[in-house]
Amino acid sequence: MPWLAEREKAVEWHHYQSGVQQDIVNVMQRNDIPIRVLKGTHLAQYYHQPELREFVDLDFYFGDRHTEADELARKELHIAIDTKPHHHTKFNYRGVTVESHYDFFNRHYPASNRKYNCILDSLGTSTTFDVLHFLRHAAIHFASQGLKMRDLCDWAFIVASASDVDWNMVKATMKSFGMSDFVATLDSVTHSRLGVASPLWDNCPTGFEKKLEKDMFQDSHAGGKCGHGWKRSLAFSDSSISLLIHKVISHLSH
What we know:
By secondary structure, this protein is of the alpha+beta class.
């Protein structure tokens, strides 16, 4: 059956990428460079069958050891480094794209990312970090491109599986960064589609649920036709003027 073949292919690719990831982690650990795994491969731990969580590339965070980590990767892995992308560099190792982050999120756009990065940096490895990082990453993708069913699955599995999350801190952070309505809408849609919602959900409609579902399931290019304004206002506390100014700064600074 086609779906079974696709499943086996996904499992095989997951194991291959996991091997590539371990190669890079081993190189960094041998040289005492702290490394944190982000996004897809890290979130897979919350799935009941981690190998079924697909991901395109590998993401690592090195912080202020980033330049040293890149130089080590260049020498040990014999790869070329692409320095063009924002908040991370990029290289290809054994056929897998790898993003090497010096910031969790682009510090210039939106401007509030700089403060959000500091909060994440203060947490260290924890389930609270995973929740906060996922929500900001989801909000950024939502505002610029749109969410996918995979994002709903990630949120559902994190909520269902993560323990010891400081939900009071998460709630306060969402309020501080103007993301409360975004999370409430995400919770509502996840609950409607998958039967799971976080402890933050109060079952009070935000009025954006149908727009989010339409954007995800009916018209994945709605933003290109109708504009992203409603998305940005739902995802960030930054004003439209601030977003415009810092988008220009972001382009000029790179």
